[in-house]
Amino acid sequence: MKTVRDFELNGKKVIIRCDFNVPIKDGKILDDTRIKASLKTIRYCLDHHAKVILLSHLGRIKTEEDRSKNTLLPVKDRLEVLLGQPVFFSPETRGASLEQLVQNLKEQEVLLVENTRYEDLDGKKESSNDASLASSWASLGDIFINDAFGTAHRAHASNVGIASLLPSGIGFLIEEELKALSMLDDPKHPYVVIMGGAKVQDKIGVIENLITKADKILLGGGMAFTFLKAQGYQIGTSLLDEENLTFCSEILKDYSDKIILPQDVKVSLAPQEDASYHIAQIKEIKNDEMGLDIGPETIQEFKNNLKDAKTIVWNGPLGYYELAPYREGTKELLDYISKLDANTILGGGDIVAAATELGYKDKVTHCSTGGGATLEYLEGKDLPGLKVIREQP
Q1: Residue 21 in contact with residue 34, Cβ under 8 Å?
Q2: Which residue, of 3, 57, 255, 377, has the greatest Cβ tally within 10 A?
Q3: Catalytic, out of 236, 291, 319, 349
């Protein structure tokens, strides 16, 4: 698969699909990690005298109100600071004014185009990979570089659409993601997977793919309670994915030696910061209690299964980490794996967000920016945003 290094960029108009889908509140960016992650590719193109055109989505656009709420203007302002140069901005996502801005662009200048999903207001043209929209965007450039791993599992006009019409490659962010994740193609053993988060439904494909490859799968978070229910335990008001109880029963029956479930949990009557809580054995959860984190026995059991691991993949937090009383399991395990001699990969938005907030993001081998793309990679799927580039001559 070609990378940005494989192209002669001098004087060329280079469209870079970035992932600027950052949290913004009252016009202020709360976390600019994704913007910073794109800088290496942008600077490389600028250093090689390209005219740089940046595309990105931000949030979902279903109403006119969403448009004003999800403008990329704050990203433009932050980019100017990070790049140390002016960034031109197009409030239009296509049309004569955008084409004129591109026409006026000089070498080593940058143009950011407004949120690609503005085009979803009229028939979901971006999300459905509308051919005319893809053609319109492709006409702006000479070369297309996809550096948005977080949307690589989507076939949108701004990635698959443009890539099917222009000479295309990947940027440094995607290259680094693929290098890290490729360690899982032939992992060192023992290979241990930690899996949390809320719904079993979201992880069925991952579990099915990894259960035959991993030596152990440690299950926590809300999804663990569906497995516990499948074993016959009462789980009170804990999260339950009732539609997938049969799946949990069958996977437990076939791979009981590989799956490690919680023995004890922190329970409370409500998921609130100031609500009282206590530790309960799995068989002691009361009808009105909700499990919100793994307990100390489970933390120790998970550590015992991790201590000799050479490859660790973690998707989804082990408790309701947004509330201080229920982040202990996630924090203790992050601290523990950060000190192991193992390849440690955090895959998926929530566990990466937790690691960032708790101070462990830079203490593991790799934090994936992918979310859904990482999950689909772990399922063994071919990501359409990359497939179209890989298949180019």
Answers
A1: yes
A2: 57
A3: 349
Q: Do domains 4-174 and 186-378 have the same CATH topology?
A: yes
Which residue(s) pair with 145 in the sheet?
16, 169
Q: At what angle do helices 33-47 and 172-181 cross, to 10 degrees?
A: 120
* Residue 349 annotated in active site: yes
Residues of the chain above pLDDT 90, percent: 88
Told to judge if 203 belongs to the known catalytic residues of this protein, a careful annotator would answer no
Fold of 4-174: Rossmann fold (3.40.50)
CATH code for residues 186-378: 3.40.50.1260
The verdict on whether 106 is a catalytic residue reads no
Catalytic residue among 40, 199, 303, 363: 199
Q: Report, as an integer, the average pLDDT of 248-264.
A: 97
pLDDT digits 0-9 by tens, 269-322: 999 988 999 999 999 999 999 999 999 999 999 999 999 999 999 999 999 999
For the chain, give every domain's residue range.
4-174, 186-378
Please say whether the beta carbons of 371 and 197 come within 8 A.
Answer: no
Which pLDDT score is estimated for 349? 60
User: Catalytic pick from 13, 17, 34, 117?
Assistant: 34
